[in-house]
Write a structure and sequence with these properties.
The protein is α+β, with helices and mostly antiparallel strands and 316 residues long. The protein folds into 3 domains: 102 residues, Beta Complex (RNA Polymerase Alpha Subunit, Chain A, domain 2), CATH 2.170.120.30; 87 residues, YbbR-like domain (RNA Polymerase Alpha Subunit, Chain A, domain 2); 86 residues, RNA Polymerase Alpha Subunit, Chain A, domain 2 (Beta Complex), CATH 2.170.120. It is built from 4 helices and 26 strands. The strands form 7 sheets. Strands 11, 19, 21, 22, 24 and 25 form a 6-stranded mixed beta sheet that branches. The protein has a 4-stranded mixed beta sheet with strand order 4-1-3-7. Strands 2-8-6-5 form a 4-stranded antiparallel beta sheet, with no helix packed on it.
Amino acid sequence: MSILKKIKINSTTAREFIFFLLLTTLVAGLIKLSKTYTTNYELALDIVDLPLEKSIRYISPEVINVNASHTGFAMLRNSVSGSEIKVSFSSMKKTGDGAYTYVVNDHVEDLRNALHGNIDVTSTKPTEIIVVVDSMASKRVEITADVDVNYAPGYGATEKLLISPDSVTIVGPSALLKTINEVQTQKYSVEDVSSSIHEELILEKPDSTEILKYSISKVVIDQDVNRFTEGTVTVPIQVINNVGGKLKILPKTVQIIYTVQLDDFDEVSSSDFLVSCVYDKKSTTDNYLPLTISRMPKNISSVRLVDKQVQFILID
């Protein structure tokens, strides 16, 4: 029993020792992190808001050396984050043709925001950054949709496919832009469609994308889809250039088969159509005249005549 009791006491003592050791280490670490330190950082420049028609030729130098005074907590936080400063193109001063200057000391707050924590910037090097940009040619071209749509039976498109936006501005060398007349979307195929289409498609860019800039990278296509039905009407045939009423046609009416949206079916009547034939003595070599649909409603999508021609006779 005395041996077990001794082991228990030693085990408890060990746990207490480890606890106080960890606590002491933690307190010592917090004390060190609360102290003030001076650290040097290298911030790489990232030019943002650059106009589409401009490209950066070079930046000199490409990094800013920043001496900063901060606590250990801030130093620890900055050691695990990226060292980069975003510089708006509009914040730089133009100094020549295509040359711009970023005055570092005028943007100390930007440096502080690029780092983390409560930081005092003590010095920077260099004091100015030189940025040289090139102007590029631009061209606006049409966007075409590479779309393959198969509709469910009885369904179809009510209007043509809409692409938004319908064009894209491309910036790059003028010689290369001359070879581009349109930009296609990625292939989009869909089967058995019975409802309207609304899809976002990515633009298919040529292999020279690395030296070209595009104002957009994707578009939205919209296609209204509705249910359609087929209807039939019987329409009287109008004879044009009837020679004194002596020309008679057989039959005097013709059937028209049309396709219309189901919602508009009741709005279509035979009076909406006009079918005519023209008698021309010089060009008529047999006893038949071709028929033409001269008028039809705007809300029908397709139309056809059951008979394409009509027989005629001349009565003396």
